[in-house]
Amino acid sequence: MLGILVQLLISWLIIWLFEKGNLGFLGFYPTKKRLIGFAIFFIVTALCCSSDFFMRMLFAKQQWELNPKLTVNLILTGVWWNIKSVLFEELIFRGVLFYVLIKKTGHTKAIIISAIAFGIYHWFSQGSFGNPVQMAITFVITGTMGLVYAYGYSKTFSLYIPIAIHLGWNVTSSVVFSQGNIGNQLFTPVQPVPEVQVSYFIFFCITFIPLLSAILINFFMIKKMRQELTPHPRSRHNQ
Hints:
The chain is mainly alpha-helical.
């Protein structure tokens, strides 16, 4: 949490030094439109992510069970960890530097630069640096998701949409289905995991459809939204 506060302070200093503005360009003010948008994008992304696990249950006969050690505190801790993680990344890659990039280079170039940086960042955060194959996979997946996150901010000039998509995927994967580095959460895979042979088509569906659906559905949903004007950081109406 301290890291996020430091990020906000640095963001405020940068925007104040260069444009004598405030943090309104982040679009944090909770309007009805933003809250509804957050809920819709969160739910859609969570459903896309869940399809991965549903297909594993259907085709690979894998099962999940309610965590016998489940507590309210365990879930709250897991959700809070994800919130902090997502906010940290969004403030870095879709925060003040991205806002400045949009103003200096335009939307398209800024989105591409942000996505490339996001993909490279995950080489280190996911420990794939040094393994060329894993680096390529990590870059394509996280870089493509980074394109969607950046597009969401550039279209709305608010972090609500990228945070909703980012959080919807991460919470569903790590908290609901216990996939990640925070341990067992709501549901845990039944052990031993069955060894089931599936066709290449089914393997493709399980591996790629959840992510592709999240990328494409969110992209077209964002595309249909009205393009917001670039906010002036001095204006209180952009918050």
